[in-house]
Amino acid sequence: MVRSPLTRPRSTGALVLAAALALGSGSGALAQSQAEAVEPTSLTVGLGYIPSVQFAQFYLAEQAGYYRDAGLDVTFQNKVDPELITLLARGAVDIGMADGTSVIPAVSQGIPVVYGATIYGRDPNVVFALDEAGIERAADLAGRSIGIPGRYGSSWVALQALLGSAELTLDDVEIVTYPDFGQGVAVGSGQVDAATGFATNEPVQLTLQGLGVDVLRVADVAPLPGPGLVTGRDTLAQKGDALRSFTSATIRAMEDISADPQLGLEATFARVPELSSDPETQLAILEATIESWTSDFARENGFGSVDPASWTSGLEIMRSLPGSVVSDSLSVEDLVTDALQPPR
């Protein structure tokens, strides 16, 4: 058999040498290319005041590898909302959970932040009281004492909006401040008649103690935009793709937990082991949280979608509050971006 010159075998030594030369000339560039391809984008994420089962979706997305698979290296920080808004504007925190009612006055005053995805489809702010107090509607708050954590944040705005719906003002009630967020305990022990809080927190815990609780949900009479993902304008310009990937991964975890709350519970206990000592309470809080994620708009458009009607209402309500700093020229378009929304 005569071999064609094109198919003539090369010696083993020649093959090894050729491979070595090829490896030597290209391995450095290949290694560099691979390193660049897998280098994750670092994101600092601001959550609420303390670690909580109410952040289960973030914990699950991290532990299930959703953030990692999206090319992200995520670090969580816990911050109170007013502090978080400042950090987001400066780029010290890349993205975080903040109240829509904090974004509105911030942007009106020139602070460069923007709201990109809804977490709570129904604003969770409530005023609650023991049922023996007889507070069943906003008008029943007249002449009553109301516990609050402070004269700031979404609960303060929501309280004024709720009072306004019954043509009451702060002059018609007695405000008692609990800077340590102990207003729920104060209601349970009879120190105050009512208090502000979240539907996902204080009323749940009082109910588990066997107490009857009446809850006035502010969103039912004064719709406000619920807490969601907020970022700084400069950060959005610099890390837009990473922020969008983060949002998609978080929404995926929300969908998982909505289908199986136990996933969120286990992720929370892995992240915050001390909470596992009372699984009944934590599950009740998580179930109330899932309920607050869901609104008619979210059911139709998906988790994360931004309801323009709640922002329009929120703007009108906040402009009407005493001492409002919200500009008449401010529009929903100034406050909200669709740049973080995943493809649907």
What would you note in describing this structure?
The protein starts with 11 loop residues before the first helix and ends in a 9-residue tail after the last helix. The model is unreliable at 1-28 and 30-35 (pLDDT under 50). It has 14 helices and 10 strands. It has helices spanning 12-38, 56-63, 66-69, 81-90, 100-108, 153-165, 183-188, 202-208, 233-259, 261-271, 279-293, 296-301, 308-320, 332-335; strands at 41-47, 72-78, 95-98, 113-118, 125-130, 145-148, 174-177, 194-198, 213-217, 228-232. α9 (233-259) packs across α10. It folds into 2 domains: 41-122 and 225-335, 3-Layer(aba) Sandwich (D-Maltodextrin-Binding Protein, domain 2), CATH 3.40.190.10; 125-220, Periplasmic binding protein-like II (D-Maltodextrin-Binding Protein, domain 2, 3-Layer(aba) Sandwich), CATH 3.40.190.10. The chain has 344 residues and is α/β, with parallel strands linked by helices. β6 (145-148), α6 and β7 (174-177) form a beta-alpha-beta unit.
Mean of residue pLDDT values: 90
> Can you identify the CATH class of the largest domain?
Alpha Beta
What is the string of helix and strand elements?
Answer: HEHHEHEHEEEHEHEHEEHHHHHH
Helix/sheet category: alpha/beta
CATH H-level superfamily title of the largest domain: Periplasmic binding protein-like II
Proportion of helical residues? 40-55%
